[in-house]
Amino acid sequence: MLIFALPVLLAAVLGTAPSGADIYAAKCASCHGAQQWGSPDGPSLHRVGLADVDFYLSTGRMPAAAPWVQVAHRDERAGQQLPLAEIRVLEDYLAPVVAGGPPLPEVVSGNDLEHGHQLYEMNCQQCHAVGGDGGSIGRSDWAPALHQATIDQVADAIRAGPGEMPRFGERQLTQSDLDDVAGYVLAMQNAQPGSSIPSRSSGPVPEGALGYLAIIVLMTFVFGYWRHDKGGSIK
Ligand code: HEC
Ligand code: HEC
């Protein structure tokens, strides 16, 4: 009995787990071409690197709904993203084609936040803004907010340089630089307004803290005055 059931079971298992080639043919080939050499609707994927593939797939930028449209806001891409299992299978399938570009980066959250902050100010802030809010970077381009990016996506973006973003190789940002700047991006995500990310300059954080201090002083004063006044009237 079990022997007869086996092929059915196998088919069921295979049916739920399509191969990388199947996924590529169904979801990518129409724009990137059967042999990944591109078409009028999409660029060649040869030698783009796994960091690039992982960035575009894991952030839901690919498979694109329409070619040549920068959909940088995550909400507008919701539902477009492939399941993680399919992304991994597809990456294995594309690995030999994309080899030659930046490989999948290794990254851990660095613990030198001060250094991460410096690197962020020098390399990222002009586009992604103080606090990682993103913003316009030209006539029709914008840099997205960094609040939802995972640590792997931060590392992918740094090494791959998607769209208008420059590519940072090992010479611009070493492995430990990468860890520190990624750690800082995560720290920005966790920071509540007014909480302290280490900051040497008089950025918004110390200013915010000063604001709170001013309010406290003012309130103490007003409260004290009010008490005094009340005390006076009792007398
Ligand atoms: C509707 C057409 C379309 C489909 C479908 C599509 N892409 Fe794309 N893809 C594009 C275009 C156009 C670009 C150029 C960049 C952009 O628009 O952001 C691109 C860019 C890319 C890049 C970055 C290439 C580079 O030069 O850095 C990768 C990687 C990629 N696509 C992978 C995929 C994969 C894998 C799939 C299938 C899951 C897929 N794409 C489906 C149109 C498409
Ligand atoms: C010249 C401007 C520019 C600089 C400098 C820059 N970026 Fe970007 N970044 C962009 C643009 C534009 C995109 C969107 C690319 C696209 O969608 O095609 C992006 C995308 C990203 C994303 C993906 C966000 C998401 O949720 O989809 C991350 C993460 C990121 N950048 C991190 C960084 C970090 C970290 C640095 C500094 C080491 C940096 N960027 C430097 C312009 C820039």
What does this structure look like?
With 235 residues, this protein is mainly α. The chain folds into 2 domains: 15-102, Cytochrome c-like domain (Cytochrome Bc1 Complex, Chain D, domain 2); 105-217, Cytochrome Bc1 Complex, Chain D, domain 2, CATH 1.10.760.10. It is 54% helix and 2% strand. The protein has 11 helices and 2 strands. Strands 1-2 form a two-stranded antiparallel sheet. Helix 7 (113-123) packs across helix 10 (175-190) and helix 9 packs across helix 10. The longest helix is centred in the last third of the chain and has 31 residues, at 204-234. It starts with a helix and ends with a helix.
Topology:
Layout: H1 2-16, H2 20-27, H3 29-32, H4 50-58, H5 74-77, H6 84-98, H7 113-123, H8 125-128, E1 135-136, E2 142-143, H9 151-160, H10 175-190, H11 204-234
Antiparallel strand pairs: 1-2
Helix pairs in contact: 2-6, 4-6, 4-9, 7-10, 9-10
One heme C (HEC) binds next to α8, α9 and α10.
